[in-house]
Amino acid sequence: MLIYQAPDHLVVLANDQKSYRIALTLDTIFGAEHPERVVTTALAAGVPAPLPPTLRAPIQSQEVWAAGVTYLRSRTARMEESKDTAGGTFYDKVYHAERPELFFKSTPHRVAAPGEPVHIRRDSKWNVPEPELTLAINSRGRIFGYTIGNDMSSRDIEGENALYLPQAKVYDRSAALGPCLLLSGEPLPATTEITIEIRRNTRPAFRGTVAISQIKRTFPSLAEFLFRDNSFPHGCYLMTGTGIVPPDDFTLRSGDEIHITIPPIGTLINRVA
Length: 273
What we know:
CATH architecture of the largest domain: Alpha-Beta Complex
Number of domains: 2
Radius of gyration: 18 Å
């Protein structure tokens, strides 16, 4: 099932490929012990409705967190951008460590919806999107769904000093989620691919694809570390890292259009402000 957030209600695209408006909120779903059962029950009383023409990000009160250096390509890129500082060794060590890198990414009001602009920092000269499979985790720490995330990053700021990571990662519209929430109690197949295409003046400027089988860590392990001594009454989202990094001579420009596709979730599209 796919859950779409309209401006004032939720619409579910059910397994019969029919869409229904349901009387639930995302906070109720994320707070439930068994979100799938809650949504299935609501569907029984659902009203047929079209998919909303305008989508909000599938988020209400959920925090957005992120995992870093979970793919070999990400580890290599982080070491390259920090090669002139002592920080490069940090990324190599965390890639091989038992404890993952986890960091806070965004509050709901900073998240860009499908079709909304994402931002690049005014004090940065090297900015990239990071396409990431994003876990939907309920208040009890159980993964129950997935969406697409864009972890916008200022590589020059992060590379200058590892302590600048929050400034490189956390600012207004530095995250995007959507276009919907895939409700699934089953893990996605390891062959599932994440594809990004960045279009500049309507022409492809960069394209990359990676299978989630390339991630080093398991998703339940990432969720377990996140919930250690942390509580999320309304659940949370966890971006799982990127295995696609544009070349070092690439940086986003205003007007670029970012397309991130993960089947069967769909495609998240955002333009750079």
